Amino acid sequence: MAIPVRRGSMRKRRGPFDLRRTTFGFALIALILAGGGMALRAAWRSAGRHPVAAVLVIALLLVAALLVLRRRRRARRIAETVTDAAYGIVDAGIAELDAAAEAAREERRLAPTEVAAHPVDYAQLDPYAFEEAVAELCRRDGCADAEVVGGAGDLGADVLATTPDGRRLVVQCKRYGPGNRAGSQELQRFGGTCYAVHEADIALVVSTGGFTEPALDYAGQCAILCYGPEELAAWSEGGAPPPWVAAEEPAAGLSAP
Questions:
Q1: 30 in Cβ contact with 22 (< 8 Å)
Q2: What does the alpha-carbon distance between residue 120 and residue 134 come to, in Å, rounded to a whole number?
Q3: Residue 221 clears pLDDT 60, i.e. is over it
Q4: Which parts of the sequence belong to the Restriction endonuclease type IV Mrr domain (predicted)?
Q5: Cα distance between residue 156 and residue 170, in whole Å
Q6: Helix, strand, coil in percent for the chain, rounding step 5
Q7: What are residue 147's DSSP bridge partners?
Q8: Which of 4, 149, 190, 238 is surrounded by the fewest CB atoms within 10 Å?
Q9: Which of 110, 130, 160 is the last residue of a domain?
Q10: CA torsion angle for 204, 208, 209, 213 (degrees, to 10)?
């Protein structure tokens, strides 16, 4: 004759094994046991000072134990209820942690970059600050070694950097006013050193005043990128890719006058 197998309600209510849920459950049980141990220790110390009360407490515990032994089913139901309540607390805590983590990820995703949140008026910077600002843009977009090298004897290079894909970037910075555009002679001087002297893979001229048409024509012939105020603002505020990415696109060396 087949023997029916009784299945407890706990097994029916439990879902598939979850390592994180089980870990939190054990942690909660450990905290409960630790608290109970501390309470028993305090009771034991108190019993040393009040022996009569200790005898009464022990007697009550023995009576409770006998009642529990006589009523196993009720004790099991209590244990199941306590276990389910503990898992409910754990599940609620895990849900809160997941919700907080998801909220933090969403906040980081929607948060604007620091440069985009605070647009820079590059035309108001002094020449050295302008060079440093361009170097910082390069570092922001992956050129970790970007540095300002401009000064006497720089031979046209104000910023040197290595792009994320390993190419050498040479930048000349022209902090001009709106009525002073970089001309072809300036581009020619840069073109004579950026490749032969500085061994550039990507040559870039950034001018806050823009460029003349002859300068743009020369830059197109020599594969020199020209970033005027509009291109610089788009790059700075995240509206356009960095120059070494734009260099791979058609007509990358042209800029509006």
A1: no
A2: 11
A3: yes
A4: 124-221
A5: 9
A6: 60, 10, 30
A7: 160
A8: 4
A9: 110
A10: 20
Number of Cα atoms under 13 Å in the Cβ half of residue 135: 18
Q: Are strands 202-207 and 168-174 parallel, antiparallel or unpaired?
A: parallel
- 125, 231: one domain: yes
Is 251 contained in some domain? no
Residue type for 173, please? C
Residues 179 and 79 reside in one and the same domain: no
Mean pLDDT, the chain, rounded, equals: 77
Calpha distance 150→159 (Å, rounded): 7
Count of alpha carbons within 13 Å of 240, Cβ hemisphere only?
Answer: 17
Can you tell me the mean pLDDT for 89-114? 65
Task: Tell me whether residue 181 is exposed, middle or buried, using C-beta atoms within 10 angstroms of its C-beta: 0 to 12, 13 to 18, 19 or more.
Answer: buried
Please give the backbone phi and psi of residue 145, each rounded to the nearest 5 degrees, phi first. Answer: -95, 10
Which residue spans within the chain are E strands per DSSP? 147-148, 159-162, 168-174, 202-207, 224-227
257 within some domain: no
Nearest to 200 by CA among 209, 208, 191: 191
For the chain, report the end-to-end CA distance as a whole number of angstroms: 97
DSSP string, 181-201: -B-HHHHHHHHHHHTTTT--S
Contact by Cβ (8 Å): 160, 146: yes
State the pLDDT at residue 252: 44
> Domain span at residue 26?
18-110
The two tokens of residue 142 are: 């992956």
